Description:
elongated, mainly alpha, 0% strand, 5 helices
Amino acid sequence: MHQPTLFQDRVNLAFTYLLLSACMFLGACSHFEHHDHGLAATNENSASNPVLEKPLTINLNGNNKWLMDAHTRSVTTEMMSRFSALDLTQQNQESLAHLGEQLSQDLDNLIQGCTMKGAAHNALHEFLMSYMPALENLKTTGSIHSAKHVQHLLAEFTQYFE
Length: 162
């Protein structure tokens, strides 16, 4: 099987960001499926890639957090509970990759049922621009580093959304 090069990884990541941006501006949450956009598998060395660990730069809603719709709140609560139920340091690579698969299915569910609109919807997409590559990295590497990164992003999510 052909392994993607670092250049191909970056091209695919840039393409994914472009598609996310288009989705954000068009407001087409329910028509967006993150796994169909060709994000290439990343290797363990890319887990420390600064592009994948882009810090969140989401503006608040004035001085307030963005309000989620009930569906988004339910799914993100499920995602966070997957981490609270695990001691990441006791997990092997296979179980962490499986966690990534479960979270990916949760994300598919979130996207399909999203009814958020306007600025709150755009803020959610800003989060997804960091979360989706991190989640893909977890699925493909199963590394503790990638799991902690996804966990960190979900914790940061709560600073911007309620």
